[in-house]
């Protein structure tokens, strides 16, 4: 997951590890942190696989910059084409992909947008089924109100994500 993010950021230009960490935390949100204990081993792995290299160039703080290689550009394209498996980080992976659409062709852009929309629509249908089952089978139980509130929260979050997907799609339709 973070490999995709790092490679996409490096397509914008060279970054120090500190700046990559800062930008990743900004994208993930206020309550999500990236430790250097996770970042540096990942950068080492990417360098070992020749997807990135450490530049002799320094940033204004005197930190070495990381640069993407041609193999890293190819790896980025492979990661963008990979289907996203249902997992706890599904939304993060799609967020990274959607924020990186400018680096892929229009066909792949449409495919990623369509896949994420389909995933969110399926998730919405699942929550609607859960609500129906909750009302039919568990009305009056002590957990009922909290479960119903949670399901409604999840539906609202999905609606927000679907609206964001629509915004991204509109933007790229105008660009292409």
Automatic annotation (TrEMBL):
InterPro entries: Tscrpt_reg_PadR_N, WH-like_DNA-bd_sf, WH_DNA-bd_sf. Residues 12-77 form the Transcription regulator PadR N-terminal domain. Transmembrane segments: none annotated. It comes from the Bacteria. This is PadR family transcriptional regulator. It comes from Pseudolactococcus insecticola. The lineage of its organism: Bacteria, Bacillati, Bacillota, Bacilli, Lactobacillales.
């Amino acid at each position: 997951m973070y490999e995709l993010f790092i490679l996409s950021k490096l397509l914008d230009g060279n970054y120090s590890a500190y700046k990559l960490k800062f930008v990743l935390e900004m994208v993930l949100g206020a309550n999500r942190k990236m430790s250097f204990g996770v970042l540096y081993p990942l950068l080492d792995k990417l360098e070992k696989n020749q997807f990135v290299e450490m530049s002799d160039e320094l940033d204004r703080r005197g930190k070495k910059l990381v640069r993407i290689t041609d193999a890293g550009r190819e790896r980025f394209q492979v990661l963008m084409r990979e289907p996203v498996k249902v997992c706890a980080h599904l939304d993060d992976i799609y967020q990274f992909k959607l924020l990186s659409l400018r680096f892929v062709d229009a066909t792949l852009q449409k495919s990623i947008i369509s896949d994420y929309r389909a995933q969110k629509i399926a998730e919405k249908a699942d929550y609607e089924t859960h609500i129906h089952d909750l009302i039919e089978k568990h009305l009056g139980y002590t957990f009922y109100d909290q479960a119903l509130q949670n399901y409604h929260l999840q539906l609202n979050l999905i609606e927000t994500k679907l609206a964001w997907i629509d915004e991204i799609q509109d933007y790229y339709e105008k660009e292409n």
